[in-house]
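Practice problem: predict the structure.
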Amino acid sequence: MLGSGERFFVPFALMLGASYFDVGLVVALPLLFGSLSQLFSTHLIEKVNSRKKVVVGGVILQALMFAPMMLLYFSPIHPVTLFIGLTICYWICGHIVAPAWNSWMGDLVELQSRGSYFGKRSRIMEFSTLITFMIAGWFIHLMKEGHQEYIGFLTLFAVALIARLMSFYFLNKKYEPYFEIKNESKFTFLQFLKKMKTTNFGHFVFFAVLMNFSFYVSAPYFTPYMLKELHFSYFQYMVIVAASMTSRIIFMSAWGKYIDQYGTRKILALSASFLPVTVLFWMFSANFYWIVAIHIIAGFVWSGFELSSFNFILDSTSSEKRARCVAYYNVLNGVFILLGSLLGSKLVQMNLFSAPPVYAAFLGSFVLRVIFTSVFLPQLKEVRPVETITYRKLFLQALLQPVHILKNK
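Answer:
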C-alpha cells in the first residue's frame, strides 16, 4: 500500500495538473482531517469495546478509497480537488485507527524490548516498501515513456488496494488482550492542553508538533521541485527515494537496539540535532547525485528520530491513557502540519530568491528546526533507567553499526 500507493500520491496529483499550492493541500489537508478524526477514536473504542474492531474496520474502508482514485483521470470537473477529497477520506480511515493500534501494540510488546522490536518491525516494513516502490517507480517510468502514464497509476493503485485488503486479513487474525478504559483514565482535549506544561509527555508534544510544523514548511515541495523544477524522470525520483529508504533499513535496527540500551531521549536528541542540516543541504546543489547523498544522510537521521519519537510516546503513557494521549497529540500534529504547509506555500509564492522559489521554504524550515530543537529538546527527560553514553560515542556507534555487522558476518 505504501510502496505503490501513498508514495505516488503527489506524482499522481502533478499528473492531474496540481500546482505547488495544490500539492501543499494534498499533503497537509488529509493529515489535518485525519488527525482531527482521532478526537472520536477513543469514543469509538469505548462504543465497540474493542481496539481490534476499530483497527480492522478502518483498514477495510481505507483500502476501498483507492477504487474511486483510479477513476479520477476521467473526471470532467476539478480532478485535483476531488483527489484532495479522496485523500482526506483515505487518511481519516487510516488515522482514526492509530490510537487504537498504538494502545493495542503497547500492550502486546514488553517495555524492555520495545526499541528492538519496533526497530526490527520498521526495518521489515521499510524493506518491503523499498522493493515495492522500486518496482513501482520503474514501472511508472516505463509507462510514461510509452505515453500511458495514467494506466501506470491505475495499476499501482490497484496493487495498493489489494495489499491493504491482505493486511486486513492478517490484522483480523491478531490476538487482542483484555482492555478496559476506567473513568479515572478519561480526560478531555482541553484538560490535556492545560496539563501539557506540567508533564514530560506534554513537553514532548510541544517539541514534536513544532518540529512537524517546521518539517512541513518544506516537506510538500521536495517532490514537485524534483519533478517540475529539476525535470527528474520517474526513474531518478525512484532512485532518490529508494536511497533514503535503504539508509533507513540499514540503520533502523541499530537505533532500536540503542533505544533499549540508552533510552529514547538520548536517541531523540541526537537525531533531532541533525535534522536542520538535512534541509539546508538542498540549497547547495541541484545535482542528482548530491540529492541522492542527502537522502542517504536523511535516512540515517530520520530513522532514529521517528523510532525514538514513537517509543517515547509508548514509554511516557500508561496503557489506559495511551489511546487518548495519542489521539490528542495527533490532533495537534495535524493542525501544525497544515500551518507549516501553508507557511511554506506562502514562502514559495513570495519568491524571495533569484534561485528556485522553493529555496525560501527550505531556508524557513531550516531556521525553524534550529530554533525548536534548541529551545524544546533540553526540557525532555528520560522516563526509565538506562545506561549512560556520550553523544559523540553514540553517534559513532550508530554510524558504524552496519560495518560491525558485516565484520561479524
